[in-house]
Every structure is written in C-alpha cells, then in structure tokens.
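Now for a chain:

_____
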Amino acid sequence: MPPRRRVDPHELRAAIDAVAPWLADEGRRPARAETAAAVRSSLRTLEEIAPGRTVEVRVPPYAAVQCVAGPEHTRGTPPNVIETDPRTWLLLATGELDFATAVEDGRVSASGSRADLTAWLPLVRAS
C-alpha cells in the first residue's frame, strides 16, 4: 500500500475552521463533506504524529486509523480501541474537550491499557 500524502497544516486548519461554529454550539451541523474533511484530516494528523499500530481510533462513519508505537496486532480487533462520534473527536482534536473527561462522561469509549491519547491532544487549537 502506498504511503498516504502528509496532511498540510493549512488544509487541517481550513477543515477545522469550517466546522468551528458547530463545535462552539453556535451553528447548525455542517455539511457531511465538511465534517468528513475535518475528521479525516485530524485523524491523519494523529497518525503522523503518533505513528504505530497499537491503538485504533474510530470515528464512525468517517474514518479509523491505527497509531501509537508499541506492540502491534495483525488480525482481528486490536487490543486498544478508542471510539467516539465526530463532534466529540473534533472537540478533543481542538483541545476544547479533555480526553480523560470525555472518557469519564462516556463520550469516548476507550478499551485497552494503551487507549489514552492525552499525550497527542490537542492536534490543533480552535480559532
């Protein structure tokens, strides 16, 4: 499989800016394409800054990535899985929501001993 194109920081910023009013509860839900762009570019950024295959981060229905160095799995469901909805993921990615709080509140499902993204979040600050 060919390597993915690196995420342009300006592309990530533009995608986040497009959904920022929704994240701040000041606007209607953005178009599916805008939400998808923000989720996918932020997950790809996480994949770049935390390379590895120890943790799978899922944000249905848009994307899932494997990241974080450590023991790799090769088949089936990985032992460390994080799953959340698109808005919660983007709040985490922009630093508007703390990872531990999101897990405690049940907004993020995190299973496995390495399923903690605190060291890599936020990926970008909301403007």
User: Anything to note?
Assistant: The chain is about 35% helix and 15% strand. The longest helix spans residues 32-49. Strands lie at 55-59, 63-67, 80-84, 108-111.
